[in-house]
Amino acid sequence: MFIDPAVSLTIAKVQAATQAKVTDLVAVAYGGPSMLVGSCWPIMVFAFMIAVWRVSTNPNPRAILLLIATVVNLVDIANLTYGKTVAPSALAMTPHLVLLVICGQVKLGLLIAASGWRFSQVCAVARHRQMISWGITGLIATWTTANTAVGIYDVSRTGQASRVFWGMLAMFPAAYLIPAIFTFTLTLSRVEQGVKEYTSSAHASSAQKFRHLRIANNILITITFICCTAVLIVTQTFDSLQNRFVVPSVLFSGTVWLCAESCFEVLTVWQKLKVVVDTGETTPVGSRMQRSPTGKGTQAKLTGSQSAMP
């Protein structure tokens, strides 16, 4: 059958234009979300290095919890990365989504539990420290289990997490922000003022240490608030099946939050070294202050937990 060359040329042009439009649509739909997932890798590798270093130099419950959370988050990133490299029709969708739910919830639970151990260190009384650390750990473990069960039920039944599941995520920032404000922010502010009042200018670094820890905690509070607010807005506004940015955005926000919490360990060690250099102290000072019997003009005696941070 004879086909007019002009018609063939027109058909070829239409096909080329259609392919270009399809390519643009695919690039827009998958390019941005894939970049978000890819940006999580260097952030989490950095956090993993900090976590390994912290466990090897100062093993404690908080350091171990952060290391496990980092490993779980790496599995989460790897799982979502794999999902981006396989055609949806060839992907075992239910196991893929179930793993996303489990890793995401376990990571947040471990992060909050590790934060609870940090918050407890500002208390001088051992019983109070145990109440804060174990109380937050127990509360968030129960909530993590419940939310994970809801998420698994949702993705197994409908292929996506419900708004109830996403809404239950609000418990995680609440369990972080409230203790952070009432322990580090308020308590350290009072301790800082007391140290300034009862220490001489020669030992001003003691007050500076508490000030830096308080500021670092406030920065973490800000990062947490921004990340969690963004997650709640995205998950309650957009459908995770229709909008491919939802899950990568949640993963990216959690990754930034976890990395920021891990970076607090670096500041802690830097502060201890700075105190040694400035004052010659070799024993880490605690988080509570006692009035020196010699009165004003001498260095305050600080007692309490083993250090300002575990």
TrEMBL record:
Keyword list, A-Z: Membrane, Transmembrane, Transmembrane helix
Transmembrane regions listed in the UniProt entry: 35-56, 63-82, 97-119, 131-153, 165-188, 215-233, 245-264
Keyword presence, Nucleus: no
Origin superkingdom: Eukaryota
Positions of region (Disordered): 283-310
Record-given protein name: G-protein coupled receptors family 1 profile domain-containing protein
Lineage: Eukaryota, Fungi, Fungi incertae sedis, Chytridiomycota, Chytridiomycota incertae sedis
